[in-house]
Amino acid sequence: MEDHLSEKSGISGFFSNFGTAVAKGDWAVKLTLLWWGAGYARRKQFVKALIMTALEAGVIAFTFLFAMQYVPKFGTLGTVQAEQVFNMATMKSEWNDYDNSFLILLFSLFSFVVWAAAIVVWMRNVVNVYRLQLQAEAGRHVNSFPEDLRTYLDEKFHVTLLSLPVLGVVVFTIIPILLLILVAFTNYDQQHMPPTNLFSWVGLNNFISLFGGGVTANFGYAFARVLGWTLVWALFSTLTTYIGGIFMSLLLNSKMVKWPKLWRTLFMVTIAVPQFVSLLLMRNFFSNGGIMNTICADIGLTGFLRDIGLISTSYIPFLSANGWAHVMIILINIWIGVPYQMLIATGVLMNLPGDQLESARIDGANPYQTFRHITMPYMLFVTGPALVTDFVKNINNFNVIYLLTQDVFTTTNQAMANAQAREVDLLTTWLFTLTQDYYNYKMASVIGIMIFVICAVFTLIAFNFMIRGDKEEGYQ
Q1: Mean predicted confidence (pLDDT) in 419-441
Q2: What is the CATH number of domain 218-475?
């Protein structure tokens, strides 16, 4: 009977069903371990048998014609260096048959993914063939290929619909992430750049360097500074825009404000203008020779700040000096981010539970008490997931930092410069600099892994403790 198979779901049920099929299956099921189409042929499902046989042949051909060119070299990532050798037959210098470490790493990883998928299909195929055996022994109808095809166009249409997106996720998301992780354990940098040079495995050396070990402590020092600023930036940029958006929404919804639609439209202009345009304009406004420095010099503010020792230059280093740049970046982000948060807060405030507000007024609660005990808890309940998302987004907010400080801020800290970092860099902009300007892919990969770990840990903690979902009934 079919209840011989486990009813468990997940990985444990999958392996349990496979073991049961191998142990209790007939000769056709056991032969399916070698010939994928045997079980279907035994049940006269010849189309399925042909499809599975062709798939097995494809996996075998892929293994011997493609994968075996790269997988055997995966342990060393190549040993033959690229060089030109003089060919006596052609009297020309020709490239030798060299190894490409990056292609070996990439195609080996791709082969491992294909093999893993093939193993899953192979095991699932054995279980399906065993199910056919159980159906036949019980005298039940065994679906033909057209009937199975109609099933995947009807009750199992979700499987058909999701097949292509899942394949896309594997090829364009999972494989690149796994490649990023593997590169972090190599010495892939400017001195080991394929195809002319080989790179190799170095174990945990890159992680040790990032945390202050190794020959130089520059990367460890820079990582601590950049990580600290990244977290400070993410916290302040998230809270200032969130609180500012709520405040502006409450203000514009107040009866004391005249022409609220006009003010709301003016604030929305920053959303209509592309962000990179606004940021580039701001960078020019606050540059060392920009409009703001001209105005400050004309009104005497620059001279006053120099007299009291806050600056030592003939201009105010809004975006070019440590400290000044950090504050200005957060202030400019407030100007850009508050209108967007204002729109979100306005939509939430329009759906506040009216009965609770009315009860608060009857009980004599003042506006502050109503805001503290009803409005703000409701805002946090509704916008909590968006708040967590904004924090993670700001950890990776490349545009604001890069567009405001690129070619403007230059570090004077030699240890930071040796690590190709600046005090205003986020982890993501540091990663970009390492890859695009210095081709230091090994350290960029390590930093990429750290960004993922930080975002994942924060998200898990935030959703576990801040967004429990146990307050929903209170707002119905």
Answers
A1: 93
A2: 1.10.3720.10
